[in-house]
Every structure is written in C-alpha cells, then in structure tokens.
Design a protein that fits this description.
This protein has 294 residues and is an all-alpha fold. It has one domain: Orthogonal Bundle (MetI-like fold). Helices cover 66% and strands 0% of the residues. The chain has 13 helices and no strands. This is ABC transporter permease.
Length: 294
C-alpha cells in the first residue's frame, strides 16, 4: 500500500521579490504594521487618557493651525479630549473587530465550502441556496437588524460581522474544492480508504489556504468599515468605548467650524481600510504563480 501525499503548494524563494516588486503594496504593509503597533501599544504611547475631559481646551485646533498647541498635536474635541489619544485607542477596536470578524467568518465559510465542495449533491445545493438567500440581504442592513436585536457590545459586533461574512469564503473555497476533488492525490486517497474528513483536512485544506488568506485580508477592511458604520449610528460598541465611527459621529456637527474633530478619524479609517485592501492585493499576487516570473 503506497502512501498518498497531498499536492501542497511549496514556498518559493522569490516570494520576497514578488512582494517588493509592488511598491504601493510595500507602503500599504508598512502603514498597516504601524497601525497594528499603535493599537497594541496605545496605553504606552497615547499622551492622554482618551476619556479625560478638559472644557478649558475644548475644540482647540491642531498644533500647526492658528491657536493650536503642541500639548495637543491633532487638537481636541467638543469635550476637550485629545484627538490623537482617541485615535490610538480607536485603532485597537477597529483592528480587533476586523481581525476577529474575518477569522470567524473564515472558519465558518471555509468549513462550509470544504464540505459543500467535497460532498456535492443535495448537501451542496442546500448550503449554496442558504448562501444565496443571505446574499439577497445587504450585509450592513442584516448587521443593523441583528445588532439592534441583540444590543450593543464589542463581541456582539464581532459575532454579527463574522456570521454575515461567511458567504464569500464558502463560495470561493467550494469552487476550489470542486476542481481539487478530481485530482489524482484525492482519488488515490479515496481508493486506499482514507475517510472524507481526513481528505478534507489533510489534502484539500492546505491547497485552499492561499485564497482563504486573500479573502480574509479583504474581509478585514470590510469589517473595519462596517464596525465604524455601526458605531457611527450608535449601534456598535458601547458609547463609552472609543471608536473611529463614534468619533465621526461626534464630530459631524463641527465640520464647519472645527473640521479636525471628524476629519482625523475619517482619515485614519480610510488609510487603514486602504492599507488592508492593498495588502490583500499583495497576497493575491504572491499566491498567483505569474507573480514569480522573473
């Protein structure tokens, strides 16, 4: 009896060269890494407590603007809270929600996609019809409905965004598995009596990790924007927790007079989402064999 070895893609020494070839992607990865460091070390590098109020310095402009002060580099909001400190702490919520929601959606979607693609038949049709039904509802409206029913909370938001985002993973992984299940290493594993669960875990899953990672990276950006949208509407995490969406909501009334209250969290949100999306493009190019052509 011969052992069957899965056709797992091997790492190529030119991966780093393929990444460095994408200059915009390198910038995006650098910005994203800085955002992660800021989020992790926010308690150490934030100049002020993000919730500390000082009405004597309310709505002070950034340090470089007329009337600004170096004590508050990005200015203060309507309650005298330091904008820079609140941006640092807001990054923690956004990246945590984005990463956890993408991880949850990836686990659920990958499991469904593997099972549906491998088993096929009526089981595949039922799961894909469920996916079609969910796609018929706009994800943000579905998230609004569920969060409105469950109530606000960080982990409620993670659960909602995770369980509303599994469809894209499932459909892509299913299509990959449909093409892989007829390959020689799968048919040989079946012939020697390897169980279906083992085939999916040891032979199919390693071959779909590249598209899974790419979709997951892109879903992080979507989850970050969705969390900000929910927080902007007051349906995300509790109001006392600093979020970029909540800062945008607080600053919308001051756009005409104190633009920095809303502009800086908006820029942080845009740069983070853009950096994550561009990082996903880099991962996609690296996973593509054409990316390794010299």
């Amino acid at each position: 009896m011969t052992a069957v070895t899965a056709a797992v893609p091997t790492a190529r020494p030119s991966v780093v060269r393929a990444v460095l070839r994408n200059k915009l992607g390198v910038v995006a990865i650098t910005v994203l890494a800085l955002m992660v460091l800021v989020a992790v070390f926010a308690p150490l590098i934030a100049p002020y407590d993000p919730g500390a109020q000082d009405l004597l310095v309310r709505l002070h402009p950034p340090a470089w603007a007329h009337g600004g002060s170096s004590a508050h580099l990005l200015g203060t909001d309507q309650l005298g809270r330091d904008i820079l400190s609140r941006l640092f702490y807001g990054a923690r919520v956004s990246l945590l929600v984005g990463a956890c929601a993408a991880l949850l959606a990836g686990l659920v979607g990958a499991a469904i996609g593997l099972v549906a693609g491998y088993l096929g038949g009526w089981f595949d049709r039922i799961l894909m019809r469920i996916a079609d039904i969910q796609l018929a509802f706009p994800s943000i409206l579905l998230a609004l409905a569920v969060v409105g029913f469950l109530g606000s909370g960080l982990w409620y938001v993670v659960l909602v965004l995770g369980f509303t985002g599994w469809v894209s993973y499932a459909r892509v992984i299913r299509s990959e598995v449909l093409s892989l299940r007829t390959r020689e290493f799968v048919t040989e594993a079946r012939a020697i009596g390897v169980r279906g669960g083992t085939i999916m875990r040891r032979h199919l899953l390693p071959n779909v990790l590249a598209p899974l990672a790419t979709i997951g990276t892109l879903h992080v950006a979507a989850a970050i924007v969705a969390e900000a949208s929910l927080s902007y509407l007051g349906l995300g995490v509790p109001k006392q927790t600093v979020t970029w969406g909540g800062m945008l909501s607080d600053g919308q009334l001051y756009l005409g007079t104190s633009w920095w209250v809303a502009v800086f969290p908006g820029l942080a949100l845009m740069l983070t989402a853009l950096s994550v999306n561009l990082t996903g493009d880099v991962l996609r190019d690296v996973a593509d064999p054409k990316a390794y052509r010299s």
